Amino acid sequence: MSRQSRLNGLALMLALLAMFSAAAVNAAAIGVTPGRTTVDFEPNLEKSVTFTIINNDHKSFNAFVYAEDELKDYITAEKTIVEFRETDDSKPFTYKFKLPEKMEKPGDHWAKIVVMEMPAGASEGEQVVMATTAVVHQLKVRVPYPGKYAEFDMVVQEAGPGATATFFVKIFNLGTEDIYKAFATVDILGPTNEKIATLESEEIAIESKKGGELVIPWKADVNPGTYHAVATVNYDGKVGSVEKNFGVGALRLELLDVKVRNFALGGIAKFEISVENKWNQRVDGVYAEVVMSNEKGDQVASFKSASVDIDPLQRSALYAYWDTQGVAKGTYDAKLILHYAGKTTEKLLKTYVSLESIETEIVGVTAKVITARGAAGPGADVLVPLVLILVFINVGWFFYFRRKKK
Amino acid sequence: MNRAKMSFAAVNLLVIGLLSVLLVNLITVPLTYPKHKDYTTERQPEFAWGGMQGEYVLFIDDDQKFKTPATAEVSGNSYKMANALDFGTYYWKVQSGLASSEVRKLTIGSSVILSRSGNEVKNDGNAELSIHAPSITGAFVLGINESVEIGERENVTAEQA
Predict the structure, then answer these.
(1) Which residues make Cβ contacts (< 8 Å) with residue A304, sequence separation at least 6?
(2) Cα torsion for B97, B100, B104, B109, to the nearest 10°?
(3) What is the pLDDT of residues A72-93, one digit of tens each?
């Protein structure tokens, strides 16, 4: 670094000062984007990299920037202090690196560009007593492995039951040699690790330092739930694997029925709420809340059931009790709210209360689907009538000329 | 007579021009956002386009030639990604029947944002963070929106995990 020795000195000074920091009440928010820049090693490679320093709290401060870690000596920067005011959202910061002729050890090598928040007004050389907050922009240099070497990742495009989920198996050829034939086998496992399906990909070739992707579709003819995919990648006789959990559909409980048996007005009504767990894993702590309103919309009662755990794909009953002392005969609107897994599902019930019975009817989901009508293409709404008008003018002219000829 | 003929020719030319614009308009899906070459830290970006109301297919790929795209069938003119995308550069386009859009490029970058209040530090970025502080031993990873307590007088550094 052209100013590296100075920077290192300053960094050391800050570290020492921080060690002796006496009192500092910290309220800070600092950021960088992107957090990482990745390059493949090439001898003597020179590049400029710009990242953005984020002033998340919109306050005045100075950002002190310096390099550390293995590759720090290959980093240079024009400046080391970036001043921020309250009005600054962010500021760019540019550094350069020049890699050496050789890097013997394969794998990842790093430089860390540390961005440290300092109080506004503090500058290089000034002694500051503070606890520091810093974020790092990483420079990652990938040195290829000799021969054939690959790393993998898998992304799953999830789908609902009966629809097609897609597995994207990414292969990064980090070796010095090309890969001529790479393919993957994906095993899909259920909640008890039982194998549900085995999928085969096509074969692809991947050049050295390049990436390839295998796309494997799967029709998810299974119950909603969480599943596990294990992709075994074979590349020119070598084998590796990557695994991931993925979901089919959404975690959902369905309200089946609400019944009240053996009821007499003025007594306790026992609501039996039947619920089905549509998910392939147990849902714990499920409970129902019922809010009763009269015809004017005034809330007359609110009561909850005890909570239960419902096994995968099983039905269960929740019991909620309503004291009907002082309640008049008539029709009530009830909002039934199911609480589970940190979310809620609401249904409306029409409840008919008579002297000896309570009848309930599930009204259904009250949500309305609102379809926003998309705008026509730019000018299409004007163009069509305009063209029609011009066509009519042309036809008029045509007949005018014909009559004139005669 | 000559003047009338010239007007006739001019109107005809205008009709041809307008019909051409209409045709192009009908076979092109105009994209709204994100803009071409946008950089964002939103990992579930929303894609929007114009055109008639109808069925569209959104294609997203990290390959410019769309060799292995992820697709989404959309009824309407926008789509928000259901799953978070990995950091990287993507290409996207929209098709509807014969109509197709241009190809746009979108880069999703990681953001390393650490906020600190008193003895609590919080990950306000979009990536998991490795936290380094004297009171934290070993590798400590802070998830998105998660926070951890450290000493008020401790130095803390965060980097992408």
Answers:
(1) A287, A288, A289, A290, A320
(2) 0
(3) 999 999 889 999 999 999 999 9
Instruction: Give the CATH superfamily of A4-143.
Output: Immunoglobulins (2.60.40.10)
More confident residue, A373 or B87: B87
| Residue A181 near residue A205, CB atoms below 8 Å | yes
Dihedral pair phi/psi, residue A390, rounded to 5°: -65, -35
Nearest to A174 by CA among A140, A199, A214: A140
| CATH tag for A253-364 (out of 3.30.450.40, 3.40.250.10, 2.60.40.10, 3.10.20.600) | 2.60.40.10
CB contact B52 to A (< 8 Å): yes
CATH topology of domain A150-248: Immunoglobulin-like (2.60.40)
What DSSP character marks residue A211?
E
Domains of chain B: 29-108 (2.60.40.10), 114-160 (no CATH)
DSSP letters spanning A348-377: EEEEEE-SS-EEEEEEE--PPP--PPPPPS
Q: CA-to-CA distance for A110 and A43, rounded, in angstroms?
A: 16
Assess B70–A contact: CB distance below 8 Å, yes or no: yes
Tokens of A165: 């989920």
pTM: 0.67
A195-219: per-residue pLDDT in tens? 999 999 999 999 998 999 999 999 9
Beta strands in B37-101 (DSSP E): 38-40, 46-49, 55-61, 70-75, 78-80, 88-96, 99-100
Report the residue from B15, B114, B125 with minimal CB separation from A133.
B114
Question: Hey, are the CB atoms on A377 and B26 less than 8 Å from each other?
Answer: yes
Is B65 in CB contact (< 8 Å) with chain A?
Answer: no
Domains A4-143 and A253-364 equal at CATH topology level: yes
In this structure, what is the dihedral angle of CA atoms B114, B115, B117, B120, given to the nearest 10 degrees? -40
List Cβ neighbours of A21 (8 Å cut-off, separation of 6 or more).
Answer: A129, A130, A131, B153
pLDDT of residue B54: 83
Chain A: closest CA distance from residue B49 (Å) = 9
A30 burial (CB, 10 Å; 0-12 / 13-18 / 19+) is: buried
Position of tokens 């809620």? Answer: A344
* Residue A181 · residue A233 · CB < 8 Å: no
Structural domain boundaries in chain A: 4-143, 150-248, 253-364
Does the beta-carbon distance from B156 to A133 stay under 8 Å?
yes
pLDDT digits (tens, 9 = 90+) for B22-73: 777 677 899 999 999 999 999 999 999 988 878 999 999 988 999 888 888 8
ipTM for the whole predicted complex goes beyond 0.90 = no
Q: Which among B30, B68, B112 has the least Cβ separation from residue A213?
A: B68
Contact B28 A393 (CB under 8 A): no
The H or E element containing residue A17 is helix A4-19
In chain B, residues 77-136 whose CB comes closer than 8 Å to chain A: 77, 82-83, 86-87, 109-118, 121, 124-125, 127
What residue in B sits closest to A55 (Cα-Cα)?
B113
